[in-house]
Amino acid sequence: MIFFHKYVYKRFTGFIFILDITTNPEFNQTTVIEDYVSRLANIDIFIHLYRSKRVGLAHKLRQITFNPDRYIIAQGEQVNFFFIITSGQVVVSKKSSSDQEVVLKTLGQGDFFGALPMFFNIPSHVAVKARDPVTCMMMDRQSFQEMVAPELKSMERIAQA
């Protein structure tokens, strides 16, 4: 069973689905969580975390799929989710002063986006658009603030020392 996320429906015109592993009996939750934990272990900002912390993070993640050419984050938009790409690619772009879209980079499996605007509570300075069908692990703002932001603050303090 796949559940439809109302916020995403309002934001996008394509069909976007979220797989909620906590309420979906068709999936082995332990296997999915283990997959998420192993993926988190390979992402730069989570490498230093103890396994127990990554398990906690994995329980907060949800899977979401975006259709090609759909904006996941619009430039200037308040960001409410942190995304980790599990398959597909996204294009990160920014509008120039002449209102032309300038591609900054392409992100793929294992890359993440949405962390900085959520960490600093600022609108996104870039747009992120699905290049092809993209599947991501997604964490909401509250979970991010509780679980990830303290780790980023610790890393920031260490870097400044």
From TrEMBL:
<dbReference type="GO" id="GO:0005952">
    <property type="term" value="C:cAMP-dependent protein kinase complex"/>
</dbReference>
<dbReference type="InterPro" id="IPR000595">
    <property type="entry name" value="cNMP-bd_dom"/>
</dbReference>
<dbReference type="Pfam" id="PF00027">
    <property type="entry name" value="cNMP_binding"/>
</dbReference>
<feature type="domain" description="Cyclic nucleotide-binding">
    <location>
        <begin position="45"/>
        <end position="161"/>
    </location>
</feature>
<dbReference type="InterPro" id="IPR014710">
    <property type="entry name" value="RmlC-like_jellyroll"/>
</dbReference>
<dbReference type="GO" id="GO:0030552">
    <property type="term" value="F:cAMP binding"/>
</dbReference>
<dbReference type="InterPro" id="IPR050503">
    <property type="entry name" value="cAMP-dep_PK_reg_su-like"/>
</dbReference>
<keyword id="KW-0114">cAMP</keyword>
<keyword id="KW-0116">cAMP-binding</keyword>
<dbReference type="GO" id="GO:0005829">
    <property type="term" value="C:cytosol"/>
</dbReference>
<comment type="similarity">
    <text>Belongs to the cAMP-dependent kinase regulatory chain family.</text>
</comment>
<protein>
    <recommendedName>
        <fullName>Cyclic nucleotide-binding domain-containing protein</fullName>
    </recommendedName>
</protein>
<keyword id="KW-0547">Nucleotide-binding</keyword>
<dbReference type="InterPro" id="IPR018490">
    <property type="entry name" value="cNMP-bd_dom_sf"/>
</dbReference>
